[in-house]
Amino acid sequence: MESQFEVLFTPAEFAALAGRDLSGAHCVVFDVLRATSTMMTALANGAARIFPVREISQALRLRAEHPAALLAGERDGVRILSARSGGVDFDLGNSPREFTPERVAGRDIIMTTTNGTRALQACLGATRILPGAWLNLGALARRLRSEKAARLLIICAGTYDEAAYEDTLAAGALCDLVWAQFEMEPDRISDSAHIARRIYLEAGSDVEGAMQRHSRNARRLLSIDNLRADVPFCLRRDVLEATAELRDGSVALGP
Ligand code: MLT
Fold first, then answer.
1. Residue 31 CB–ligand 1 contact under 6 Å
2. pLDDT at position 1
3. Using 50, 70 and 90 to split pLDDT, how confident is the model at 28?
4. pLDDT digit string, tens, across residues 165-203
5. Please, what are the domains in the chain?
6. Which atom of ligand 1 is nearest to the CA of 230?
7. Looking at residues 126-135, what average pLDDT do you find?
8. Cα-to-chain-centroid distance, residue 74
């Protein structure tokens, strides 16, 4: 019997979703540092829609169709500039603190990041595709409960080709919040959900300390002067009440 509550830790696993039937599944995608945290921040600050795409070339093509949209994203953590895109400086990078109401309210945003936007795209075919963040963890759990999600896949976007501790930790926190929904039928819970939850429970309340010890990505951002503040920003838990969904090519707040 296929489990109904699963965590995917690495990009290799989410890439394999293309060969799986995702009908009936809720997929929650965590790229805590930083793509999904940035998306939630942008939408909470009034952005209309976010179009997540895999490649820089796709972003540029889409912008030709939507000339008023902002271009956002990173490669190697920094804003995409003309040397990388073949002539266009992107308007925004991938720091959530850039996506202020002044910059994004009412705007569509086309976004490409190294892992986060790829992970969202990998879930196409699922019943629901929800970007996840510490910022709106409680709201996400409430939504999963109210929609009686019977099949839940939590996707960790990871860093380059590797698992990322910060995504695993957030996945574990969400597992813990919705555990009661699945625990009556233990065979529906995959070992991966147990592993993620256990990692979260062992970290306790010292999320920042755990990140310092175990997250290479957090340490990398913390070592860069103008990105350092992104880490505590993305670790703020439950500061947003909203959830968002990828549907028909764009992410928007809802329901
Ligand atoms: C990604 O999508 O891989 C990340 O969000 C990368 C980053 O924040 O620099």
1. yes
2. 65
3. very high
4. 999 999 999 999 999 999 988 889 999 999 999 999 999
5. 5-247 (3.90.1560.10)
6. 8
7. 98
8. 14
Q: How far is the CA of 73 from the centre of ligand 1 (A)?
A: 8
Cis (ω within 30 of 0) for the bond into 186?
A: no
Site to probe by mutation for ligand 1, drawn from 78, 114, 215, 234 as the one with most ligand atoms within 8 Å of Cβ, is: 114
Atom of ligand 1 nearest to the CA of 158: 3
* Rounded CA separation 205/221 (Å): 21
Query: For residues 207-239, b (16+ Cβ closer than 10 Å) or e, as one string?
Result: beebbeebbebbeebbeeeebeebbebbbeeee
Structure tokens at 105: 């309210």
**For position 237, what pLDDT does the model report?**
97
The pLDDT of residue 46 is 98
Per-residue confidence at 255, pLDDT binned at 50, 70, 90? confident
Nearest atom, ligand 1, residue 117 CA: 2
Is 114 touching ligand 1 by the criterion CB < 6 Å? yes
Gap between the Cα atoms of 156 and 200, Å rounded: 14
The finding on whether 121 has its CB within 6 A of some atom of ligand 1 is no
Which ligand 1 atom sits nearest the alpha carbon of residue 159? 3
94 close to ligand 1 (CB < 6 Angstrom): yes
- Which pLDDT value is given to residue 177? 97
